[in-house]
Amino acid sequence: MKKFLVAGIAASLMFAAASANAISVNGEVGEHYTHLGVGFGTTSPGLALSGDWTHNDDDGDVAGLGLGYNIPLGPFMATVGGKGLYTNPKDGDEGYAAAVGGGLQLPIAKLFTLYGDYYYSPDSLSSGIGNYKEANAGVRLTAIPLVTVSVGYRYMALDGKDGNRDNIVADGAYVGGAVNF
What we know:
This protein is mainly β. The protein contains one helix and eleven strands, in the order H-E-E-E-E-E-E-E-E-E-E-E. The chain has a single domain, classed as Porin. 10% of the residues lie in helices and 66% in strands. The protein has a ten-stranded antiparallel beta barrel with strand order 1-2-3-4-5-6-7-9-10-11.
C-alpha cells in the first residue's frame, strides 16, 4: 500500500507539472559523449521535473531523474533542486547518487537565453562511486517557440572508489537542440 501511495504522489506531481508547463525533449552531441533529456516545466516558474541520460563509450553512463523549483528573480529564473542518479562507470561498480544543486537562466533580448547549472553529490550520498560533479553552461537560441538550438560546455565526473579510476563522462563543448510542446 505504501509503494502504491508513493507512486500515486509521484505521478500526480508529474501530471501537475506537465499540465501547467511546457514539455521539452532535447539532445546534445559532444566530441566524446551524447546527452538526451526530457523536461517538464523547466523554463517557467514553479515545479520542474527532468530526466536525462549521458553516455560516453570510454567512461560509462549516467541516468537521472530531477525535481526542482523555479523561482523568478528579476530577469533571472533560478532553480533549486536535486537529482536521483544511476551511475554505471566503465571502470568501477554501478551504483547511485543523490545530488543537490541548481541553476540560473537569463533571457537576453527575445531570442537568446544564457543558462548554467551545477549539481554535486558527496561520497556519503553516493554508492559505487566517490563524489559526483556535474556542471553545464551555454547559450540557447529560440527563433521559433517550438524549436531551440543550444551551444555550451558540459562537465560530468564520477570519482573513483575502492581503487577504481575516475570516470569523466562529459568534458567538452556540445551542440544541441530541443523540441518544445
